[in-house]
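Technical annex B. To support the medicinal chemistry partners, we prepared a structural model of the target in complex with NAP, based solely on the information shown next.
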Amino acid sequence: MSSVPVAVVTGSNKGIGLAIVQALCKQFQGDVYLTARDPGRGQEAVAKLQGEGLRVLFHQLDIDDLQSIRALRDFLKQKYGGLNVLINNAGIAFKVHDTTPFAIQAEVTLKTNFFGTRNVCTELLPLMKPYGRVVNVSSMVSSSALRGCSQELQQKFRSDTITEDELVELMTKFVEDVKKGVHDKEGWPNTAYGVSKIGVTVLSRIQARMLNEKRKGDHILLNACCPGWVRTDMAGPKATKSPEEGAETPVYLALLPSGADGPHGQFLSDKTVRTW
Ligand code: NAP
């Protein structure tokens, strides 16, 4: 078994994920895994970084596929006996003008951004080694979507006692309410992406609390963040930040020094803790 520290970035064959891997290859003292759902696209990205003289490793990972997540989990367990850095970056967004019915957009978006990310956490968080760092890439859109929720929902999502099961129930309810055509009446905002990222931010707050309760002595720090508005296939060419700039906050959180006792359980953008 290797004692070399290991970092994994989900959805890193392009965009912000690729820029995060690139930065980690330069700054993280250990093995860095670029992961992709499509091995062909993944290997192409690996070749690009290798062409820049960087040392990078590859593992397949589709966060929609529990078998794929578990294969990565078993590989990390066997080869490294755990994991030091996990960046949950993989995500999807329908374009504003996409004509796919909202009910399908809601189901598909929540499936990857919330349920997929949660499944990765369920399988990989138990592997985190002491002083591990976990970064869940959310979005400022989670904050604006939160403000678009009913007072009752806002209170639930801001609660310091909400459980993971309760959050899963709420995310499931959003998809069902959209399908029934009652999401507006039930206090939800009109954005599937926004609700999925509320899920990611609240999940991070819950997971940080659980780490405090169950693994306090392990000094693991877990946070959610927004990379900013970044020029990628998702956000388009008009966005203000380059992928490298978008990677800065996630990489900062991934490399918090071992002496740091925070941030933890926070939502950050531009390396700054934001009020949830
Ligand atoms: P992107 O260029 O579209 O890249 C998304 C990445 O996620 C791709 O590598 C994609 O793989 C991967 N992915 C999607 N579904 C996956 C799955 N089921 N399993 C594994 N990988 C999957 O988007 P981006 O702008 O870099 O976004 C990265 C993250 O930042 C996302 O979580 C996004 O919500 C968040 N974010 C972005 C912005 C922005 O302005 N760009 C702002 C706020 C937050 P494929 O190539 O196979 O599709």
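Notes passed to the chemistry partners:
Residues 129 and 193 are 31 Å apart (CA to CA).
The beta strands are 6-9, 31-36, 57-60, 83-88, 128-137, 221-226, 267-269, 272-274.
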